[in-house]
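for the recovery benchmark. tokens below, seq after
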């Protein structure tokens, strides 16, 4: 196994966070597709194909490890991954109501704290966690992160009020802070459970490490957790797609006006483009945990800080994405200042927690 290096670990977490903060952007490149169609394709790549390929490529005797792993470990990892599946759905819908920056800040902020504390509570080691070197500093960083999340929520409510006074009602229905906030909170709580799935799956990673997987050991448990997530989403969105008659969007008949243009040498059918963009979204989602796994191993004895550092970075980068997409273009200076204060607060919490991890 490669020697631990927390600095490299934090860098790998940053790469994963960047991937996660951009994984929903490809949806905006699709045409004549509903969210249901996009979500089904991206979930297939995010939670089945990409993690399976990663496991097969990086884990020696992967299927042998799975066959020898304790059934209880496999089922708990799968079931808790399934619970996260509901969080993924809530997260996706929340972005449509309150945008990327707010959804990421609120839900991931909650996930950062719960994803760290819940496994400790279940193991009865929360006291030891905060007594170890850097533990109290991590706790301070968590509290500052919660303040940052609260400021994000306040900025969101201010934005909603300003939009209602400046924009016709018909054009403001897409932004709904109350519905979006409830979805983001639900996503944050359920997303924090994903770290429990990864904790339960650690024996699978340990088996992979003994087989020589090295820094890639996390890929062995990742596919088990994401499979549970996929099953939940596949059932939900398949039923929803049938109910709303969305599966006709996968038919070439849905793109008749574009067929002739697509026949030209340089033309690419829109259906193929939609499939490619959706698969890219799924791959980006999966790569966040690929790099999370690498970073977690490189953190060495400071692995206890991995989840909260990774999530804090995700919040930071998602805010930059939201700003780049001009989600806050028409707000007042006071609201924008509130937003920037929230961003700086979250950045400070990330610096503090990173310092504790070093």
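predicted aa per position
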């Amino acid at each position: 196994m490669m020697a631990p290096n927390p600095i490299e670990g934090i860098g790998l977490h940053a790469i994963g966070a960047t991937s996660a903060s951009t994984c929903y952007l490809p949806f905006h490149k699709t045409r004549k597709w509903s969210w249901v169609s996009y979500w089904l394709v991206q979930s297939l790549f995010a939670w089945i194909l990409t993690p399976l390929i990663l496991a097969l490529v990086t884990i020696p005797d992967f299927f042998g490890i799975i066959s020898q792993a304790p059934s209880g470990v496999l089922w708990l990892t799968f079931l808790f991954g399934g619970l996260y599946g509901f969080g993924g759905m809530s997260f996706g819908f929340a972005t449509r109501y309150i945008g990327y920056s707010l959804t990421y800040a609120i839900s991931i902020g909650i996930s950062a704290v719960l994803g760290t504390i819940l496994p400790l509570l279940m193991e009865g080691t929360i006291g030891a966690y905060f007594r170890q070197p850097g533990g109290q500093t991590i706790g301070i960083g968590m509290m500052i992160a919660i303040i940052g999340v609260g400021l994000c929520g306040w900025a969101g409510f201010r934005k909603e009020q300003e939009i209602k006074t400046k924009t016709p009602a018909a054009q403001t229905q897409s932004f709904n802070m109350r519905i979006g906030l409830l979805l983001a909170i639900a996503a944050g709580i359920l997303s924090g459970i994903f770290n429990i799935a990864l904790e339960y799956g650690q024996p699978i990673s340990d088996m992979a490490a003994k087989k020589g997987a090295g820094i890639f050991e996390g890929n062995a448990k990742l596919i088990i957790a994401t499979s549970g997530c996929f099953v939940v989403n596949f059932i939900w969105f398949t039923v929803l797609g049938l109910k709303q008659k969305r599966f006709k969007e996968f038919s070439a008949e849905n793109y008749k006006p574009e067929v002739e243009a697509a026949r030209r040498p340089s033309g690419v059918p829109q259906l193929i483009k939609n499939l490619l963009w959706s698969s890219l979204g799924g791959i980006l989602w999966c790569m966040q945990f690929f790099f999370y796994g690498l970073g977690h191993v490189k953190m060495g004895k400071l692995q206890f800080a991995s989840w909260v550092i990774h999530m804090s970075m995700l919040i930071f980068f998602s805010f930059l994405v939201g700003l780049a997409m001009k989600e806050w273009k028409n707000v007042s200076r006071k609201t924008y200042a509130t937003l920037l204060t929230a961003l700086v607060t979250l950045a400070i919490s990330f610096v503090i927690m990173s310092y504790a991890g070093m």
